[in-house]
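Revision sheet: structure tokens.
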Amino acid sequence: MPRTSRLRMLVAGVIAGSLVASAITTPTNAAARSPGRTSPVAAQQAAPPQAAPPQAAAAPAPLVEKAKPVKPAAPARPKAAKKGTTAVVTWKAPKDNGNKITEYVVTSYRDGRKAATKAFDAKQTSRKLTLPSAKGAWTFTVAAKNTAGVGPASKRSAPPKLLALPSAPTIRAVTADVTTAVISWSPPASDGGSPITNYLIFPYIGGVKQASQTVPASPLTATVGGLTAGITYTFTIAALTSQGLGPESAPSHPVVPNESPWVFWNGNNAEVGVAYSQNVDVSRGQAPWTFSITYGALPPGLTLNPNTGLIAGIPTTAGSFAFVVRVVGSAGRIGSRLITISVTPAPNIVIPAVPLGEVNAPYSLRPTVVGGVAPYVWSLASGVLPPGLSIDPNTGEISGRPTTAGTFGVDLRVTDAAGLSDVTQIRIVIQPQTVVTLTASASSVNFDSPVTFTANLGPGEAEGTVTIFDRQRTGVTVNLGTQTVSFNRATFTLKLPAFGLNQVFVDFDSTITNGESVSNTVPVQVNGVPGQLLIDQFRQSGIANTPSQFDQYVVLYNNTSIPMQLPGIKVEAPGGVVIEIPNTATTIGPRVGYLIGTARYNVAFPTIPADLLVPTLGPVPNTGGTGLRLRVPDAAGTITDAAGSTPGWSTGTPLPAFTSPPTVQNAWVRLRVSGTPQDTRDNRTDFRLVANVIGPVNGVPSTLGSPSPLRQFGPFEQSNILQTTLLDPTKASNAAPNQQIIDATPTSPKRLIIRRAITNRGVTPATLVRLRISTLSQVNGAPIPGTPTPPNPAELRAVNPTTPTETFTVGGRTVTVQNLDLDPPSVDPPGGGLSSTLTAQLPLGGLPPGGTVYIALVFEVDKGGTFWVGWDVEAIGGGPVTPPGLAATAAVTPKTQKAAKKAAAQRAKSQQLTNVRGSTR
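Predicted:
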């Protein structure tokens, strides 16, 4: 589980006739380690993002999110027309940006001020509006809407034109069959400000208008039915808009169904430079016919034979050409037809930059052709391709794996279905295969120390990326990162994550040749250093009614700035016990614990299993000595830590030995300073025996507390994103409600209550929040970090409150404070102390970013005097990973003016210290 560094909170004071408390909060900044490209193997081995010192904090993995919908673009400036209180607004549909437009929002402005807004469905891009007044200068905007919302509005329209009927269309061609006629026309010059919705065609017989036929607004050609053979017809056409029907066009030339020439066209499209010959076909009517062009123009290079209707020639210009051919028979009957011929340009080979090739690397060059008529045939007009490459005659792709370096010039030819060809010359350069040489700045380094690897590439051009891999002693290969090649070189400065022999190599991926090359392998021996892997908590003592060898555990703590590979690390105990962490174990992140327990391990939270279960972690106490040591799998088998009561299985002064196997919950807990384990290389200084009872445990001095080991994938992370501050920041830290002393009564001892606010300063909700006591003035307790223990220390015990909540007025509003209970295995009575935890209740959905929860800790005072309390905030969620912070210690409050001046001078030396004096009686 990712862990951020902890936020340390300390209060201190004097318990006698009066108490004074102070609180310190020290946030820190974060720095990120550059993440590398991770292979599937590396993904299994990689640790979650961890807190670390600024030189190497792992970056959190990115989240992949579904793309959010995007609003539509703004329509172009609309057009508007108006008559009285009626206006018509017309626009073109904008880009929908990947989400279908569902509505349009039209806003009207009168004299520059918004007058009204109305939404319409997206079926039409022209709408009629009823204005509240005909007076004023009116303009309009249009905005499109989709599932993402309403997009930006268009620019305002120009002042509306006068809304009117459309003008008359123009009939271009009419040709009649037996009972039908095909009519083509041009649209009117003006639509009157309102889009044309339909056209009405009116047949005339001898000047008498017949029933109209309605046809769509497009295309501009329609078939009229219901005609009578042998009757002479003329036709007019009128445009219809929302304003009504416009004027009719001028009459067409007359046609007589079944007698006038029926003109039809089955011709093909043309190609520039290819001979073209197609006839305009005619049936009915009386030959001979005369052909002419009455509208539009033929494609340049083509001509119409007026006697035969043959359109022939060699087109010279590409494009689409519309024209009307009129046919007049010998009896004077007329037929005309609108014809369109598309002229395709001649084939033209288009080749992007010819890619550089490399020996043995996949090569592909695929040209395209513009113009011409499919299908195409590709070939070489001259020259020879590089050995290993060939050309596909159907697609023109040149591909393969070249075998020979050099420069090769060829002429590439394409021929289309009409026989036209295009030839272009290309030059293909094939360079020698890239060779990658890897060197390292050192062949042997200490764990957590950087090594610089340099990859030199050549002899040709090398552009692309180099990925570095580490093949570890377990046979696992891990991706350590990727760099871009610059000037045929790539450099990596990194810390290798595994003890022992690391075989490092790089893989080059070219972006200009598709070449791939693997470097030589560079061996680097990584050595362990004492203190890098620590024993954080352990127990070899057992509890009542359980065999001790079944109730043991130890927490291994990565005390470095980088992830550490676990496989091969050994835990040793007297009597020949050796536990080797298997290759199936994962990477342990920086500042993270790894919990090894035996079959009946049941400390703290039984629902959270150990990371690794083993048969035993040593002999029964007092039957052969106790102690543990950690050995890393480097060449020397370095012992990084040892803790216990037996020489050889301890560091510095051994821990005191039990007189007999204990029968209570207990554990040796390493003290913490500034959020990290204390390591003075002396067991007596660094460890405290904690138990859930008061007093010595089988002859060994202990302090009241809770065995609560850390686990690699446990439910809590230590966080300085969750900040602890005073409940009421306007009051002194030792003043109510931030601190309160409840005097003893005949039925209740003296109590100290400390109240605080916990605020989520992160960017995600915190779903779990608890406090872990890290230092406390108590018998054999944890001292004030970095400060000599003051004389006459108080003796405190964390206890459960008498009421679950209290309310206070802070800043003019009422807040509810949770009085926190002790988590198991702490039991009240007698209470908790070092390493005890207290969980806060959060609102549904967790503590949101910027949210605050108010809490209180309750302590019973067994003995008055100078006191100190420190805790760490542990949570899930809350924001980005940050490195551990430095926690300031609380100063002892003086009772005399002379001592007060001395304390003030001491506080001035530490900018991290905030000490507010106060007292209660």
